[in-house]
C-alpha cells in the first residue's frame, strides 16, 4: 500500500527539531518514500488526513524486561522460584510466551516502535523478535539479549539472568546466547535497590572484574556490544575499566569515571522510572521497608546525577524505563521522557531526540529508524497536542504506524492504581 500523510505537523526527531508544516510524508512498502510539499500531486496514494495533529518518530525504549507487568507487589517475590515454575512445563511456557507477546504489543500500542530487551525468559525475546519481523506477531522492532549473565546471589540470578559461578560458566552462557542469535549481551554487575540489606549500600559489586573483562573481550571479538546493570560508583568504574559498552541505570560520577566513559566510548542508559516509586512514594503505598526506601532514594539521586554529569561532559545518553519493575508498566515509557525533562532539566525537544534518533544512532539502527527521513522505516506516532510544549501529549495517541501498518486510536488496558499514584509526580 501507498499512503500519503497530509495536513500534519512534523517533528522529525532531530536534536533541535522544530514543527514543520506544509509537508506531506509519503509511505510506500513500509518505508518513508519521500517528504514532499502538501501541494504535490498525490495520485496513486491513499491519503491520511492528520487534521493538523503532530507526527513524529516512534519511540525507542532502551531498557525493557518483557516478562514483567509492572504490577505493584505487597511483598518481594521469589523471582527464581516463580521463573522455574513458569518454565517447567510446555503448557506454562506457552502461557508465559503468550503473555510476553502481549506485553510487546502493549509497547507498540503505546507508541514504542523499537525496544531493547536486557534480560528475559529463556529465548523468548529472540523468538518473538523473529516472529514480529516475519509478520506473524504484532509488536515493536526488538533488539534482544535474552537472559543476562549474573552470579550466584547476584541481581536477577536464576530468573531473567543465568547465575554463572565461574568465568567458564559465563563464557558458556555467552556462547549459548550467540547461538540464539541475540543482538547484545547483558551483564548484571551490581545488585539493586531490593538486593541491599543495609542502608546506603544499593548496587553492591557482585560480579568479579575479571569475569566482566572475560565476557566483554569474547563478546567484542564476536561482534557484540555489552550492556551492564550498574547502580553504584564502584560498579560504574569496574564496568568501564573492563570493557562494557553501556551503563544501565548509573550512579554519581567522578572525574575518573567521566574519563573512563570517554576512553571506552560508552554510553549511558538513564532509567529514572523504577527508582522513583521507592524514593518518593509513601511506604504505605509501595510496601517498601525503611531500608528499601532509603536505598531507593540513593539510587534515584544517583541516576539523576549520573545523567546530568553525562550530558555536561558530552557522554551520550539514551532512555529506558526498566519496564517490568513494580509500578513500571509496558505502556508507560512516555513517563521516562517526562522525568528526564523534569529531573535532569533537558528540553522537551532533547528528550524526544534522546528517545528517537539518538537511541537509533547508538544502537546502529539509525539507517533504519529513529527519525522522519527518506528511506527509513515508517515507524511513526501521531499526537493531538504538541509534545514540544508538553510531553504528556504522548500519553494518548491518535495513531501508531509501524513499518507502514497503522493503528488508529490504539487502546490499552491500564492499571488505575499505578496511573493514579504516578500521576502525582507529573
From TrEMBL:
InterPro entries: Amidohydro-rel, Metal-dep_hydrolase_composite, Metal_Hydrolase, Metallo-dep_Hydrolase. SUPFAM superfamilies: Composite domain of metallo-dependent hydrolases, Metallo-dependent hydrolases. It holds the Pfam family Amidohydro_1. GO terms for molecular function: hydrolase activity, acting on carbon-nitrogen (but not peptide) bonds. Residues 54-405 form the Amidohydrolase-related domain. PANTHER family: ALPHA-D-RIBOSE 1-METHYLPHOSPHONATE 5-TRIPHOSPHATE DIPHOSPHATASE (PTHR43135). This is Amidohydrolase family protein.
